[in-house]
Design a protein that fits this description.
The protein folds into two domains: about 230 residues, Zn peptidases (Aminopeptidase), CATH 3.40.630.10; about 80 residues, Elongation Factor Tu (Ef-tu), domain 3 (Beta Barrel), CATH 2.40.30.40. The protein contains eight helices and 17 strands. Strands 1-2-12-3-13-16-14-15 form an eight-stranded mixed sheet. It has a six-stranded antiparallel β-barrel with strand order 4-5-8-7-6-9.
């Protein structure tokens, strides 16, 4: 990963983008794609689409901009902020975390408190998110309400750590890696003279039920959509052997098979990988992908879609881990796929 690519990824990771509050993160992404796109547009809720004009076949490469987080549910008279979840937050990793409240007047630092081990009785159960509180150091409720309002979003304080080799740990890799890939593919095809029209898409509110993709799928209606998102690596510490497949960090992007994953697109991606000498992994997704592909493939009477996964350890924790080699291989794979796609090609199954 070169310096420009890494700086772009770091900028995305450093910009909080909880579901429903993605504006700042979308601005970072739009600034990047505006350097190469023929056009960039947004809709009423903040989905962003950048386009390189080509032939009549239209291919969308999609990532989601939002991340999980918390929201201020209420402020009590002692000045503590009671939490609500934004997306699929994990109650077992929230205690003892530094957080940032994104208030209208600016950011407010805080911590999700944890009772000291000396004062706890035995192995207490993890509290539900709604039973946890943020301490911002306010003297009382009146002081807290001068700084924070009900409905303000909260994110865990993020740091980006380079691990060994090309591996990286951060909060919010789900799914900054997807929007990064979409933008980098758009940049790559500007120099590759590909035939189809290519859309890079950064959707909102995927973590709440692929809602942004439902909007974009209806409005954009491409001939095919490739949703780039993280998927569970099975080589992490204590990863359950009886769930998921055999997916390793650094072994290449993961092509989903089954459910939303259109067979023609699966075959085309595998062929592109083989021709370009890019290693890929396969994942069985017999019921759903759990990604934006699930929204695209039922939009407008059916948009051929496929899920391309980036292996990720410790998903939905503050210490997600990916291998940046998988990111570069994903860009190379999608560029190769677009390079072998005709400008007037359609996708369908023969029945």
């Amino acid at each position: 990963m070169d310096d420009r690519q890494r700086a772009f990824l770091d900028d995305l990771l450093a910009t909080p983008s909880p579901s429903g509050f993605e504006t700042e993160g979308q601005r970072v992404w739009i600034d990047a794609v505006s350097e190469v796109a023929d056009e960039v547009r947004t809709d009423a809720y903040g989905n962003a689409v950048a386009v390189i004009e080509g032939g009549p076949t239209e291919i969308a490469v999609v990532g989601h901009a939002d991340q999980i987080g918390y929201i201020v549910r209420r402020i009590d008279d002692d000045g503590y902020l009671h939490l609500g979840p934004i997306g699929g937050v994990d109650r077992t990793v929230s205690r003892g975390q530094y957080v940032t409240v994104h208030a209208d007047s600016g950011t407010v630092p805080g911590v999700i408190g944890q009772t000291a081990i000396h004062l706890r009785e035995g192995d207490e159960e993890y509290d539900e998110i709604r039973d946890q509180k943020v301490d911002i150091g306010a003297a009382d409720g009146e002081a807290a309400r001068e700084l924070v309002s009900v409905g303000d979003p909260i994110t865990v304080e993020s740091r980006v750590s380079d691990l060994q080799g090309s591996r990286l740990a951060a909060s919010g890799l789900d799914n900054r890696v997807g929007t990064w890939t979409a933008a980098e593919v758009l940049r790559a095809v500007t120099d590759a003279d590909v035939e189809p029209t290519v859309y890079a898409v950064s959707t909102i509110q995927e973590e709440l039920g692929v809602r942004g993709a439902e909007m974009v799928g209806f409005d954009l209606s491409p001939d095919a959509a490739i949703a780039v998102d993280v998927t569970h690596a099975s080589d992490g510490a204590d990863a359950p052997a009886d769930r998921g497949g055999d997916i390793d960090l650094g072994a290449g992007p993961v092509i989903g098979r089954g459910s939303a994953n259109h067979p023609a697109l699966v075959d085309a991606l595998r062929a592109a990988a083989s021709e370009a000498g890019i290693g890929v992994q396969l994942e069985a997704l017999g019921t759903a992908t759990g990604t934006d592909a699930d929204a695209f493939y039922t939009a407008r009477g059916g948009i051929p879609s496929v899920n391309l996964g980036i292996p990720n350890r410790y998903m939905h924790t503050p210490v997600e881990v990916i291998d940046t080699a998988d990111l570069l291989d994903s860009v190379a794979l999608l560029s190769a796929f677009l390079g072998r796609t005709a400008g007037d090609e359609g996708f369908g199954v023969e029945v």
